[in-house]
Fold this protein.
Amino acid sequence: MERIDTVVVGAGVAGLTTARLLQAFGQRVVVLEARDRVGGRVHTVRTAGRVTDLGASWIHGVTDSPVAAAAEAFGMRTVEFTVGSFQPDGRPIASYAPDGTRSNDAAAAAFAEDVRAVDRALLGVIAASGPGESYRDVTERAIAARGWDAERAQRVREFLEHRAEEQYGVWIEDLAAHGLDDDQVEGDEVVFPDGYDRLPAHLAEGLDIRLEHVVSRVHWHGAGVEVTVDGTTDRSTLSAAAAVVTVPVGVLHSEAFTIDPPLPPAVAAPLGRLRMNAFEKVFLRFPTRFWDDGVYAIRQQGAEGRRWHSWYDLTSLDGEPTLLTFAAGPTARETRTWSREEVATSVMAQLRRLFPGAPDPVDVQITGWQDDPFSRGSYAYMTVGSVTSDHDDLATPIGSVLHLAGEATWTDDPATVTAAMCSGHRAAERVFGGEIPIERLWSSPR
Ligand SMILES: Cc1cc2nc3c(=O)[nH]c(=O)nc-3n(C[C@H](O)[C@H](O)[C@H](O)COP(=O)(O)OP(=O)(O)OC[C@H]3O[C@@H](n4cnc5c(N)ncnc54)[C@H](O)[C@@H]3O)c2cc1C
């Protein structure tokens, strides 16, 4: 049986970060990856000259971001696109009233101010909330305290429903009251016109990564770990002094992945309170632009926008008129079995309420993260009853030989590439038993 220092399960940003840092500090590391590629939920496809990020697109705030620092060091081009966090304003947004007419600037500004007023009140309401309360419970309390008429309150209520869906891919009643505590953006947001996958590609350079190695069992004990890989024709086992497991929460929950002995309560309990969401991207490419120049997004208010309400203009990325919308939360579950044509028809019916002459798209791409056996959703959310520390607690070292890492294990900014990178860095330091500067990911020692 092969014996190494550390085995890393998963070649997403978390796993690659751990492996790269430990290898830089002299360890023998092997990364086992189920897919035939690295990057995990950072996945770019390139077809007919189009570069499409099917997973992560944004750095949600470049200020003090290690992902931004790594991207710059790796020479990755970025484009500013500060609407990735469902902001009510801050950048030009074309807003449409419930009847499909364009809101004037004053009406759009008044609505954004209403959202901000509720957000300010929410801080105190969430801080005072009880353990079994949902994001719906706290937002309703914050809205009620305004004393608005029903119509005004409903506009903000539906915005907050959409926020829970777009930010966490979950219906507002299923998200914990604290489920959006991390929702702050420091600095501009940016996207990658040449593809986000350049980041994991750079991180992977020089590592021993074994693709198409599906891990089915991690056995841990006082002297180390044995990791079992199920191949198409055989089974093999890798032995190591330590393991860092970075598979998504959905895989940890599944019967296809066994940790033996089972996770101790300090880790199993927070894991039980986190769940994978339902969040898919829908890219529509058009022969001509039919919306305003210079707007970052198009938003529709009202009941008609229950499924499709926000479209993001990606034209600046590759020059082709392109809108991105999301099937998020209930809509992602509802449309899960729909054909591409059915989804496109449904989205276009909505868009044509706002733009009656809109042409058919020339190309439609829809993601399928819910049905991906190696992600089982897009990222984890806090179910009602969970607390923010559940994220960090999920990374509690197990018998000092087994460590969990990945986006769901980072309290400060979960569900992001930043969380994946920071959690991978923390796991490397714990395995190494000392400080490792995160800059070692992108710079050599002097
Ligand atoms: C549609 C979508 C949009 C997103 N948008 C953004 C965004 O704009 N900005 C942002 O910051 N984040 C975004 N995210 C989240 C971000 O992509 C993730 O938080 C991050 O990439 C997770 O990295 P990770 O290393 O924790 O997990 P992963 O990238 O999932 O890596 C885990 C790896 O483990 C592998 N694996 C799974 N099971 C096994 C097994 N049994 N054996 C071996 N290997 C296995 C997987 O194949 C995968 O490669 C988005 C995600 C999605 C899906």
